[in-house]
Amino acid sequence: IEKEGLGLIFAVKRFHKYLFGRKFLLRTDHKPLLSIFGSKKGIPVHSQNRLVRWSTILLAYDFDIEYVKTDEFGQADALSRMIQKTPLENEDIVIAQVEEDVEEVLYAAVRKLPIRVKDIQEETWKSSTLKEVINCVSRNSWPKKPEGKLKQFFDIRSVLSVVQNCLMFKERVVIPEALQKATLRQLHEGHPGIVRMKQLARSFVYWPRMDSDIEKLVAACTTCQIHGKTTRKVPLEPWTTPDRVWQRIHIDYAGPDNGQYYLVVVDAKSKWAEVAIVKSISSVSTVLTLKSIFSTHGYPETLVSDNGTQFVSENLHPCVRSMELSTFARPLFI
Q: Could you check whether the bond before residue 256 is cis, i.e. omega within 30 degrees of 0?
């Protein structure tokens, strides 16, 4: 609908100087446009915004719109319905040209690799999986329920072809398993990173789980990790739930807010929070505040913080030692 409507809008704008101020007739072979552009009751509510804008443009003109059958509308479709003057080439010639183009792509791809076409041909026929895939592609006969490694090629069977005993995935060479490590080493020269390696690989080669192999190679490369732009993602390991209340507490400072800070202490078991308002976040103030809180709830076994300077200060060590003497034999301070 939009393409047919755009044709009318283009024609009206093109001949604006001839149409504006005069009544004219718009003829179209697309009947739905009559209810959109020719309705006397206004633009239909369900029309898209683009069609509404075009209807608004046509409001400036005085016209009638008329539907004409396609068979009786030949003068408008003349260019799109012209008879082919030049004869079509024979089918076998077209196929030969396509085959020749694919061979050029094959050699262009292999020239970028440290291996030769001969190597790919030999290793392809040594691979039982690729040999079976080539037979299926050549005969155009695949099993109804492929199993094992053959299943990996079944979903892409429509874009597989065989050129000079090499299996091709579109314009990319399918690399046998024996040559995949050598190909990865070549792609990894210069440590381009995951994104660039995948771009290079997707331009020339293919094998199942190729992207996964590239990611593993880059993840194991120390140079890539040092100079990489993004840090490696590490899965989160949540804290285990303590057995009893006040066994492990988490502390941190919040603020400043109106010149004051908040020492927040949260129990990992009950989620009970203790908040103390302080003027200073020094280690001395932290010790005094913690002693006040511990005098109410007792000493915890584990104290978790973000290793702020006030939490790792020497002034806090006596508090930790007293915690050890008062409650548990082996307290843990993190």
A: yes
CATH top-level class for 95-229? mainly alpha
Instruction: Establish how many alpha carbons lie within 13 A of residue 170's alpha carbon, considering only the half-sphere containing its beta carbon.
Output: 7
**C-alpha 326: how far from chain center:** 55
The per-residue pLDDT for 333 is 40
**pLDDT above 70 as % of the chain:** 77
Q: What's the pLDDT at 123? A: 86
**Tokens 């005993």 correspond to what residue?**
165
Fold of 248-333: Nucleotidyltransferase; domain 5 (3.30.420)
Report pLDDT for 43.
Answer: 63
Q: In terms of Cα–Cα distance, which of 294, 283, 181 is closest to 246?
A: 294
**How many CB atoms neighbour CB 44 within 10 A?**
13
Rounded to 10°, the helix 194-204/210-219 angle is: 150
Round to whole Å and give the CA distance between 77 and 69.
12
Cβ-in-10-Å burial (0-12, 13-18, 19+) of 105 comes to: middle
